[in-house]
Request: fold
Amino acid sequence: EVQVVESGGGLVQPGGSLRLSCAASGFTVSSNYMSWVRQAPGKGLEWVSLTYTAGSTNYADSFQGRFAISRDSSKNTLYLQMNSLRAEDTAVYYCARFRVDFVVEPPAIYSDYWGQGTLVTVSS
Amino acid sequence: SHELTQPPSVSVSPGQTARITCSGDALAEQYAHWYQQKPGQAPVLAIYKDSERPSGISERFSGSSSGTIVTLTISGVQAEDEADYYCQSTDSSGTYRVVFGGGTKLTVL
Reply:
């Protein structure tokens, strides 16, 4: 059974750092496109970052240089390192597996599995 | 940048048909996908590649595309369909930057 479980959320002061983890089971993280998506309280979904099977990464402009996505193949785990956190970063952070359909042009990219999320609260 | 626009809310009575639209210039070239999110839960894929339905999703859910507008249609709406719905696509830069619409709250009257 495919499953992703996020952890590492919590209360952090403005300017602080936090590392989120996403442990996967039922599939191999490094063989899939994996992403972090966040949702501020009462707001919509906001894409944060994507890691490709080849290891390259992509970020929404708002997070470039401040957040870093990575993975550990030995632990089958995805990470999100968040630095210089601000109050507006308060959100539930979801880990999601994305499928890429290369049969079609342009490729179709969508998520088929999401974790339950981990809450990050940035406050003094 | 690539933006997707959805109506903030749609309301229908039980048994009626709900239609939720999503518009954006890049949709003329990129596929759109739809997620259902109920309160306190993670999003669930409802429609992918404009009109494909994942296994386990009710046949009452369908999708269509015309130019720069995609539409999620829910036929015979039931109380359990009340949720937030998000469209998602990718920008046309070729770098796989994911974009979500602002979401639509479906209320079953």
User: Anything to note?
Assistant: The first strand of chain B starts at residue 9 and ends at 12.
